[in-house]
Amino acid sequence: MNPRRKMWIFHGANSSVRLSSTWTQWCLRYAAVLSLLCSPVRTDDACPYSCVCARDSGTVTCRDGEDTEVPGDIPEWTSSLILRGRNISTLQRGAFMSNGSELDMTILSLSYNGIQAIEPYAFLGLPRLRLLDLSHNQLELISSRAFHGLPDLRSLYLNNSVLPSAAAQLSEALDTQTLQNLHRLELAGNRLRSIPMLRLDIYNLHALVLVNNSIESIGWENVTNLYQQTRLRVYLALNPFRCNCGLEAFYYWLKNSSQCADSGHLLCSEPEAKRGVPVEMLRGDDVDCMNENLEAVSYVFLGLVLALIGLVFLMVLYLNRGGIKRWLNNIRDACRDQMEVYHYRYEQDSDPRLANVAV
Ligand SMILES: *[C@@H]1O[C@H](CO)[C@@H](O)[C@H](O)[C@H]1NC(C)=O
Ligand SMILES: *[C@@H]1O[C@H](CO)[C@@H](O)[C@H](O)[C@H]1NC(C)=O
Ligand SMILES: *[C@@H]1O[C@H](CO)[C@@H](O)[C@H](O)[C@H]1NC(C)=O
Ligand SMILES: *[C@@H]1O[C@H](CO)[C@@H](O)[C@H](O)[C@H]1NC(C)=O
Ligand SMILES: *[C@@H]1O[C@H](CO)[C@@H](O)[C@H](O)[C@H]1NC(C)=O
Ligand SMILES: *[C@@H]1O[C@H](CO)[C@@H](O)[C@H](O)[C@H]1NC(C)=O
Predict the structure, then answer these.
(1) Of all atoms in ligand 5, which is nearest to the CA of residue 224?
(2) In what residue span(s) does the LRRNT domain sit (predicted)?
(3) What's the pTM?
(4) Which of these, 62, 79, 171, 216, could form a disulfide with 51 (CB 3.0-4.6 Å)?
(5) Mean pLDDT of 228-239
(6) Which residue lies with its CA nearest to atom 10 of ligand 1?
């Protein structure tokens, strides 16, 4: 029950002042009528506990309360609800249903609430919602049916909110036909390594913000899908692009589609030699897989040729082993003869008596 809802308690009956019985009866009846009028009926001016309500603009703002839940008594006239700085760990099914009925709310801002989990159908009962801001939370559990029942949603902000372990769950959750009117999806600062969407043709996307993530490259399959979304503008600054031949399809998309709205700000982070170089400023050769492959192929080819030459050399040696043996023998014989001649001469020269005898 709402703690602020006023309870009318009649104190008159046991009053110390003695009154005539008719007066008491009249008072009792009056109090009964009053309590009937006031107690269970929700007043239109009700504003949830610890929130500020601006009826004119239809805005309800609830900041930094100690509450760990979504207020249960959101006024029917609310068009914008801003909850911030609360410790809401889980958004439960139908968390924004006001006493079981739908709300005409169009803007729901839930940034900085420490939200960790979104349960299935958490946003049930908000059929007119156009903007949902879930930035700066710590989402680690996102149901695949988290965003069901939001047919009018145009902007979804999830900046700095999705933990790396929940990236795959996010893809599943976004893969729903009910987001068919989604115009703008912001996913900055989530350490994402790829576009967290399985397909792009189920939305009506005009802006996809992926700045400050961990995207190193976008493959040709995704590039093909991007080309098909002619209205779409993609923002990709502050990602660590790996500028090798894997970037080829993306490089040409960047060069000739003009779909990347911040293309001038994309920088290479690898390889070392190209760090800080704008991706746009690369030459076709830098991302040419043919080139890179040719280089690799030529090294392999050179190695093969060298190996072949070595093999031929060994083969020649082997086939000629008879001749080589003979040749070696000849050399040895020649050496021996030579040695013998020397030996003989030495013996002759070294004995002076023999020399004298000879003379
Ligand atoms: C948030 O609430 C949870 C329990 O629901 C508690 O464990 C946690 O310490 C709270 N965090 C903060 C910052 O208040
Ligand atoms: C809440 O809804 C129930 C029926 O669903 C109704 O009886 C009750 O009066 C409603 N309370 C308020 C405050 O609207
Ligand atoms: C999300 O990011 C966009 C642009 O990067 C910004 O306009 C928007 O205000 C951000 N939202 C929050 C809640 O920080
Ligand atoms: C990038 O995102 C990280 C969180 O992933 C955040 O801490 C950092 O401030 C962001 N940097 C910029 C320049 O927005
Ligand atoms: C991006 O590519 C991956 C695999 O390469 C694929 O699973 C995914 O559906 C693609 N997403 C888009 C939006 O093209
Ligand atoms: C875009 O780049 C590709 C290279 O893959 C090229 O074949 C194509 O002609 C280019 N398109 C335009 C419109 O320049």
Answers:
(1) 14
(2) 46-80
(3) 0.73
(4) 62
(5) 94
(6) 87
The pLDDT assigned to 253 comes to 93
Query: Residue 94's closest CA among 63, 59, 69?
Result: 69
CA distance linking residue 259 with residue 254, whole number of Å: 7
Top pLDDT among 280 and 316 is at: 280
| Distance (Å) from CA 157 to ligand 3 centroid | 7
The label of the residue with tokens 């249903």 reads 97
Q: How far is the CA of 211 from the centre of ligand 3 (A)?
A: 11
pLDDT at residue 190, rounded to an integer: 96
d(CA 62, ligand 1 centre) in Å: 18
Half-sphere exposure of 11 toward its Cβ, with a 13 Å CA cutoff? 4
Pick from 67, 89, 112, 116 the residue to mutate for probing ligand 1's pocket: most ligand atoms within 8 Å of its CB.
Answer: 89
Strand order through the sheet with 184-186: 51-54, 59-63, 80-84, 107-109, 131-133, 155-157, 184-186, 207-209, 233-235
